[in-house]
Design brief:
about 250 residues, alpha/beta, TIM Barrel, eight-stranded parallel sheet, two-stranded antiparallel sheet, binds zinc ion
Length: about 250
């Protein structure tokens, strides 16, 4: 990340646009996959099923049925199966562009195109959860997405407790490039203690994951720790209601 990108990201982080105070009635967790590579569903799905949990798959419509730079992405059948199993389709932009690089008109066109695409699999229901591609965000793009979705996730590391920004929720990475079991365990304990919202994220699931993905064992281990802490795991749209005490 170059300096300008870092600064823009930091500025966005310092400028909450959709603040809310979590109710703190009980802790909650979500497991999320970005983009998403096909094996997040074919290998990740069975692990979620083993733990009896449903996830949020942030879907970039432009990746459907494609292989890009060696990554095999989901296809239409995967989306149908995933929705049938009760998982959530989140929005991740159609073209998977870093949002600060798009004009507001381009953001609009991209958001509409992805929403239209996703509606084809959700019985016409619009997605309510969004994640910034690459976590790239600026104050302008936060303000753009905030009113369009009930919850928006960035990639800033951390848990969500107390006063949060629903336009840039924190997340804990399960990616192999920054795999630190102690940090994940500490995050789980913090959420348990403060009745916060733990949002986990990764990309592919494979025995030989990309730097941005996880092995099946990593995913299984993390969900096992959350289960051991007796924290309920729900898709983002439902976890939001629990977190807000609705
Ligand atoms: Zn992405």
């Amino acid at each position: 990340m170059n300096l300008k990108i870092k600064l823009t990201s930091l500025m966005a982080r310092k400028l909450p646009v959709k603040t809310a105070r979590l109710a703190g009635h009980r802790p909650v967790a979500s497991i999320t996959f970005d983009d998403f590579p096909k094996n997040a569903w074919t290998l990740g799905g069975p692990i979620l099923a083993k733990h009896g949990v449903r996830g949020t798959y942030y879907t970039a419509g432009g990746f459907c049925g494609r292989t890009v730079d060696g990554t095999v992405f989901y296809d239409r059948e995967d989306l149908k199966a995933l929705v049938a199993a009760g998982h959530e389709l989140g929005c991740h932009g159609y073209g998977h562009q870093p949002t600060p690089t798009l004009t507001t008109d381009q953001l609009k066109a991209d958001a509409e195109r992805n929403q239209e695409f996703l509606r084809g699999f959700t019985g016409g229901v619009a997605p309510v959860s969004y994640a910034f591609p690459f976590g790239r965000v600026s104050p302008r793009t936060k303000r753009f997405y905030a009113p369009r979705f009930t919850n928006v996730r960035g990639v800033h590391p951390g848990v969500n407790v107390g006063r949060v920004d629903l336009a840039q929720l924190n997340t804990i990475s399960l990616e192999s490039r920054c795999w630190e079991p102690e940090k994940i365990e500490a995050a789980i304990q913090r959420v348990l203690h403060d009745h916060g919202w733990l949002v986990l994220y990764t990309h592919d699931v494979s025995d030989t994951p990309s730097p941005y993905g996880s092995t099946p064992q990593m995913l299984d281990w993390a969900l096992g720790k959350v289960a051991a802490a007796r924290i309920e795991v729900l898709p983002m749209r439902e976890a939001l209601s629990v977190a807000l005490g609705a």
